[in-house]
Amino acid sequence: MPSAKIEGPKIADVEIKRVLVREITDALEKAYKLPRKVYVVLIKENPPENVGAGGELIIDKRKS
Amino acid sequence: MPSAKIEGPKIADVEIKRVLVREITDALEKAYKLPRKVYVVLIKENPPENVGAGGELIIDKRKS
Amino acid sequence: MPSAKIEGPKIADVEIKRVLVREITDALEKAYKLPRKVYVVLIKENPPENVGAGGELIIDKRKS
Amino acid sequence: MPSAKIEGPKIADVEIKRVLVREITDALEKAYKLPRKVYVVLIKENPPENVGAGGELIIDKRKS
Amino acid sequence: MPSAKIEGPKIADVEIKRVLVREITDALEKAYKLPRKVYVVLIKENPPENVGAGGELIIDKRKS
Amino acid sequence: MPSAKIEGPKIADVEIKRVLVREITDALEKAYKLPRKVYVVLIKENPPENVGAGGELIIDKRKS
């Protein structure tokens, strides 16, 4: 605590996750001014058939 | 935003997800009166060994 | 279980919450085909200074 | 409702999940004093490349 | 990490929260076998007009 | 979508929220490479009597 939970699509490259976690933690550290070790970041990856935007599945948007 | 996150068991048929996202979005649109494109719906599927109800795993309820 | 968590702005009128919960539950019931009593819906209300969209607080968007 | 969502690393042994759900439910039951059947517990398992602590992915901590 | 998020109704007495956090942490510690200091528990309190069960707001169930 | 939900203590100064949302969005944009307007950030503020760390409420840690 504090923590951040990210919900997004699949991230293929672990280096992108590495940078994302570092930068989110930088932002949290600046806001809450607690020791860096306390911040937790969770990246949640969602398949496109499980996400709807504007009432449509992402998997259907890509088709159309 | 606004968004809805659904937690439930696995859904085998993508058509059920399609209808679920559409109907959840209909309900959100009616409540919040924002442009349809802003609503996000996430469907989270949980394996039965990771869900407890009444203190028991679903996987054990099915056995008993 | 299954459940839905809604994240959105403040809803002033309890009748809107009543309809929202009923319609979200209708959609869940149709998708998961479980007894109606098992579905839980949580409505989370967020103040506009705690929500960012496109990198800006909602409170600032309204001003600009 | 009430419910608990657990976020943690992968749990290899289903017996550990079984005990975790039972004990979390015991704690909820004692706090909220509702019939045991209403409590839901979700266990979320996260791969180490999707969790950051102190600004670093768990997968990198294990290497160093 | 690991962490637990509890969603429930309002808890009037802080001693109940104190015991709930201690017992949830006991259960997490037994399951994950990590140092006790790493576990975080969040208690979320929901007003009865923001929770639906079986398609009805809690606030309406209490009336009927 | 993608979105980030931040869980932390109360933030007294709205300027800190403003910067936090901007920087979290910067990090998301760099990772997911989608148009900036799609990212949503929610800041959740928790009272110290509702957060446990290491099995103790924050409110008790401050006393000891």
Strand order of the largest sheet of chain A: 1-2
Largest sheet of chain A: 2 strands, parallel
Beta-strand portion of chain A reads 25-35%
Low-pLDDT ranges of chain A = none
Radius of gyration of chain A: 15 Å
What would your notes on this structure say?
- The structure is a homohexamer of 64-residue chains.
- Chain A has 2 helices and 4 strands.
- The first copy, chain A, is α+β, with helices and mostly antiparallel strands and 64 residues long.
- In chain A, the strands form 2 sheets. In chain A, strands 1-2 form a two-stranded parallel ribbon. In chain A, strands 3-4 form a two-stranded antiparallel sheet.
- In chain A, a hairpin with a 2-residue loop joins strand 3 and strand 4.
- The longest helix of chain A is centred in the middle third of the chain and has 19 residues.
- At the A-F interface, strand 1 and helix 1 of A face strand 1 and helix 1 of F.
Quick description:
The structure is a homohexamer of 64-residue chains. Chain A is α+β, with helices and mostly antiparallel strands. Chain A contains two helices and four strands.
Topology:
The structure is a homohexamer of 64-residue chains.
Chain A: E1 3-8, H1 14-32, E2 40-45, E3 51-53, E4 56-57, H2 58-63
Parallel strand pairs in A: 1-2
Antiparallel strand pairs in A: 3-4
Jot down its keywords:
64 residues; 27% strand; two-stranded parallel sheet; homohexamer; alpha+beta
